[in-house]
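Final report, Chapter 2: Outcomes

The project's central promise was a pipeline that accepts a single protein chain and returns its three-dimensional structure in a standardized token representation, suitable for archiving and comparison. That pipeline is now operational. To close this chapter, we reproduce one record exactly as it appears in the project archive, with the input sequence first and the structure output second.
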Amino acid sequence: MTVLKNILMLFAFLGQFSALSAKVKVEKNINYTDANDTYRQLDVFYQKDITQAKDVIVFIHGGSWSSGKKDTYWWLGRNLARKGVVTVNINYRLTPENKFERMAQDCAQAVKWVKDHVSKFGGNPDRIFLMGHSAGGHLAELINDDPVYFKQAGLVNPVKGVILNDAFGLDMKEYMTSAEKDNSYYDFLRSFSADPAIWEKGSPLHYVANSKNPHLIFYGAKTYPAIQLQSERLNKLLEIAHVPTELHVIPKKKHVGMISQMVFGSNKLYDLILNFLKRIE
């Protein structure tokens, strides 16, 4: 994921001059737990006019569960806020010090903070949507489907819908069982251990029967085969369960390009996201 980091840092550098928008405000580095810990902080992007409650997207970054940070994606928060969506970019604790369970716990705690506080930024606490790229998509789907995480955070699942952008690891048991034993495989062992029972515990597709809220699923036509197969399977299982879902295959895009394309506010994924939000009552 070093390539992803370098590309996104370049985009951030090139676009930094436009970070300040006449309509958008940013509150940065807010602790969402009692710990004064940079890994448990979030940024809120919102319009200055907070008189009308707006939809809220909580964005969970990717990075193979071992890297990444909210600050890299300031442009996503800015672009969505300009389009009328209060956007919350979150950090969470990473491997090797932490396993996926703790990351999911952090994400659920961040959502609880959003539920309790987002109205101060013009957000509607009854219209919270999760969005994640890569490993962030895994964590978004996991806390949405496995009820243990919101229960630990002390709230009923408040998520109105889920947006997955090239989500990796929807079935970690399948991936780890069949994947080539390369550097990525051994990196993932740090987050998921070598125990197949833990791989299954960390696989959102094994809890998909619990998912009752609408989904918007993207994957790149040139992304990793595991992402393509598991995104298709998630979409199919939701359809069978009569859960509203839509899937879009984005032509010519690889894994990194699926998120880096969104640095441009005119990217078509924003239109798909906004239309998705509008359709949900």
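Archive annotation: The first strand starts at residue 24 and ends at 31.
This record, like all others produced under the grant, will remain available to the consortium after the project formally closes.
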